[in-house]
Amino acid sequence: MAYYIATLPVTIIFIVNGFGQLFYALKLNKQFPKEHNFKNFYFIFLLWITAALCYPFFYSTDNVNIRWFQGLSNFFICIFTPSIIFLILLYQYVAVVKKNPNIKEKRNIKRFIEEFDKKIEDIDDLESYDLNTDLHRKALHLFPAGIIVLLWIFAIYIWEGIWHADQVWGISGGDFGVFLILTVGYSGILLFAGLDYVRLSFIFKNSNIYHLLPNNVLNLLNKTMKRNELFEFIRPASLVLAFIPSFFLPFSVFISIALIATLADGAASIFGKRFGSRHFPKRSLKTIIGYISGFTVAFLIGIVCLLIFEENLNFSEIIIISLAGAIVFFLIDILNLDIDDNILNPLFCALVMGYLYLLFA
Question: With a threshold of 0.70, does the pTM exceed it?
Answer without folding.
Answer: yes
